[in-house]
Task: structure prediction
Amino acid sequence: QPELGKPMRNCYSLPGPDFTYGMYMHRRDGGVPEAIGHWDSVKAKPHKRVMPRDFVTMGRKAVDEGCTTAREFALYYKFMNIRCKDKEILRYGCKVPPDMTFGRPPRPSTPFFDLIQHRYKELWMEQQRARTVVQHMVKKKVGITGEVRENRTTFLRTHPLPVKAESFWHPQRFEKVWAPHIPSRHQSQLFWASTST
Result:
């Protein structure tokens, strides 16, 4: 039976006070003085990055060589192994160029004196005045010369479409045409004169 208000005791005997729990590392375990005074410096290993194959360049060169079928392209890709170029400047263990700047360049500062004097408003007003003067001159020039902008109607008036030549071909049944069925005035007078006599 466990004691009242206490957990049940286990049957294992614990090691003595000289026992160290965990894993002891002979090389690095020197305590706080070694951690503060001697930093572990890791040297960078030369790592060669394997770049993917550049199929665009290989395809262009295969066409230049005269490959046309899929089998020829596959053979060319098999024997000509062209890799993409590594365009990354900074990698682990690489040196930084001396003239390289990180981040975006700052925006040029706004001249505060121009803001107080409403300089931007005056520049905008000058642009608007110059624009209205140019528009007025263009309208004057159009009014003096009397030129009207050309549209489809005026173009067709000056350049009429060619007249289609009329075809005089008729079917064979309309070639033999009898005399007109409605008699003329002279024929009707002759007809009535002959009937009256």
User: Anything to note?
Assistant: The radius of gyration is 52 Å. Helices lie at 31-37, 55-65, 70-79, 112-116, 119-145, 152-158, 185-196. The mean pLDDT is 78. The CA atoms of residues 182 and 188 lie 10 Å apart.
